[in-house]
Specification:
290 residues, 26 strands, 52% strand
């Protein structure tokens, strides 16, 4: 059994650009024990009115890690200076490898901007090991239909396997280190046993509802549960219908140095990242989009 170490309520909210009302759930500078996971932001849920101009955040750099964006409601358009782009809608996932460095922008899609509506997204930052931090940038646009959904016994709910494995079913995301990301919908009164690997970092974020963990502690919507690396199994019982984002992964036991949009291993590497960014070595913004 994985013991519960702590339960945390989300912090104060802030805006990222004009399209993402965000609460930061955890950050590596406060919770280094969550390696390989660096940061989790919860954007929304929020209702946007119809507009003519797309809302979002403009061109900005990243180096040394990956961003994983999971859309629960709404639509997000992505473009980057590595030549990648795409639209993710409800149920879709965008997995961007910043690697050696790029610029990207994220905005509500044109259709969602015109229609308005409910918007809710999670964005997770995943660290890269030292030998992969300068890997070429990459992009995985994973659509909902390609994410397997495992039906739990007795109508208990479903588990969408984004990365890693659950009940012998593998997720589509390609990862640099062993990672499991699960989107769990659990029916009130039902339970699921999650196998989160002995020695792995493990945590879960309650998007909505209430759950009882290991028959001992209750967690509610917008709370983060941090688990011990020791042990394997976590029993989760839904007191109400609930949705959980479950993260487990092999820790990257290496130094972490970060500043703003860059996460590397040493302060010198961070200085080099800023130098490369200001020198334009992280890609050129397309002229038509500048």
């Amino acid at each position: 059994m994985k013991n519960i170490l702590s339960i945390h309520r989300q912090g104060e909210g802030h805006w990222v650009g004009d399209g993402f009302p965000v609460h930061t759930i955890f950050h590596y500078q406060e919770h280094p024990e969550l390696s390989p996971f660096l940061l989790l932001d919860h954007a929304g849920p929020a209702d946007f009115t119809s507009a003519d101009k797309q809302r979002g955040v403009g061109w900005h750099p990243h180096r040394g890690f990956e961003t994983v964006t999971v859309v629960f409601e709404g639509e997000v358009d992505h473009q980057d200076t590595a030549g990648n782009g795409g639209r993710i809608s409800t149920g879709d996932v965008q997995w961007m490898t910043a690697g050696s460095g790029l610029l990207h922008k994220e905005f509500h899609s044109e259709a969602f901007t015109r229609s308005g509506g409910r918007f809710e997204v999670l964005q997770l930052w995943v660290n890269l090991p030292a030998n992969s931090k300068m890997t070429p940038p990459g992009y995985q646009g994973i659509v909902d239909k390609d994410i397997p959904a495992v039906a739990l016994p007795d109508g208990a709910g479903t588990v969408r396997v984004i990365a890693g494995e659950f009940a012998g079913v593998k997720g589509p995301a390609r990862t640099f280190t062993p990672i499991n990301l699960l989107d769990v919908s659990l029916t009130a009164g039902k339970r699921v046993r999650l196998h989160l690997n002995d020695g792995y970092t493990a945590s879960l974020y309650v998007l909505s509802g209430k759950v009882l963990l290991n028959g001992q502690e209750q967690a509610s919507g917008t709370e983060l549960v941090i688990l011990d690396r020791k042990g394997d199994e976590l029993t989760t019982e839904a007191s109400t219908d609930a949705r959980l984002f479950v993260m487990s992964g092999e820790p990257i036991e290496e130094p972490v140095a970060g500043s703003g949009p860059f996460v590397m291993n040493t302060p010198q590497q961070i200085r080099e990242a800023f130098k490369d960014f200001h020198a334009g070595r992280m890609g050129k913004i397309p002229a038509e989009a500048a």
